[in-house]
Amino acid sequence: MMPSWLKQTPTGIALVLYCQPGAKQTKVAGLHDGQLKISLQAPAIENQANEMLLSWLSKQLKVPQKQIQFLSGQNSRNKRVEVWGSITPEQIAQILSP
User: Fold this and answer.
1) Does residue 12 sit in helix, strand or coil?
2) How close are the terminal C-alpha atoms of the chain, in Å?
3) Which CA distances in Å does 73 have to 50, 82, 87?
4) How far apart are CA 71 and CA 50, in angstroms?
5) C-alpha 1: how far from its chain's center?
6) pLDDT in tens, 34-86
7) Do residues 43 and 76 make contact, with C-beta atoms less than 8 angstroms apart?
8) Of 96, 45, 23, the residue nearest 81 (C-alpha)
């Protein structure tokens, strides 16, 4: 069964994330209201946290950063990002599972 924070879309896989900038380290920090909670080391200024999120997801999921894009929430803690390429929802769930 798919976690609530993961949705298959016609073009890829959408992740519903709750991001907490300014943490000690970047990591999956559990769940928050049905969203996957990610602690980000970068501060929430000048897009640094968003950049770190995309680069961290790219490394964790082993997909090029250009295959991850924001659907919404660049200026919010509640974000939706879409991943596409040769990765399945099951693989993402396994890699990012809290």
Assistant:
1) coil
2) 15
3) 10, 12, 23
4) 12
5) 19
6) 999 999 999 999 999 999 999 999 999 999 999 999 999 999 999 999 999 99
7) no
8) 96
- What does the chain come to in residues? 98
Amino acid at 68: I
Which residue is associated with the tokens 């769940």?
Answer: 31
User: What distance in Å separates the CA atoms of residue 85 and residue 96, rounded to the nearest whole number?
Assistant: 17
What are 66-77's pLDDT values in tens digits?
999 999 999 999
User: What's this model's pTM, rounded to 2 decimal places?
Assistant: 0.95
Could you tell me the two tokens for 3? 């976690």
In the chain, % helix, strand, coil (3-state, to 5) comes to: 25, 35, 40
- CA 25: distance to chain centroid? 15
